[in-house]
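Hi C.,

You asked whether I'd gotten around to modeling the 210-residue construct. I have! Everything is below, sequence then structure, no commentary in between.
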Amino acid sequence: MQLIMKMTLSDLVDIHITQQYIQYLQDATLENGDLTPEDIELLLNPPHKSFEFDDEHDCDTLLSVQLFMSSNTVELYNGAKEAIQIAHPVNEILSYDQVKRLIAGITGVWPITKHMCPNSCMAYTGPLVDRDTCLHYKAWKFLLYLFGLGPGLLYCVLPTDIWRSYSKLVSGVCIIYQKSITQTQIQVAHLHLIQFVAKFESMYIQCHED
């Protein structure tokens, strides 16, 4: 058996996480993941014969499967199931979990659900399995408030000279954050950032040009 050496993890966050994912893949087995013993058994011993419903004896099961296949959510399935049972109390419709397991047993296919960032930044699996928020969300939220909403929210709140200086910072940062930028825009951004730094130093550090 080939031995896989443990890598030295980087101090840089993004590289560190990437290396952790690589290590997880190298160490992965059926037993150390999040598969249940039933899932592993089904994976190792999938069905090898066709499955047929008996229209007379399996009508409720067949109805449950058809209902499951046409429902996008648990709520839709349960709502339709309740409506059918009110109209036809004799029908014994399977629960959502029961029919899902039935289909998995017939097909050998079952869903694997992992939560992820709404912006598709990352999935909460592997080294991030215990997370429920995106690593980049707080930075994005900070940038939104500071550079997106800040000038409008702080208008007439900050003293005029401080607000104008802050707006210079926002203007310079927003320009350099663009996907594409012209030489003229670079010069404008540079000017605004220099003006912000000069004003900041004069107000808070008392640094004078002379």
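If it helps when you're writing up: Residues 59-107 form one domain.

Thanks,
B.
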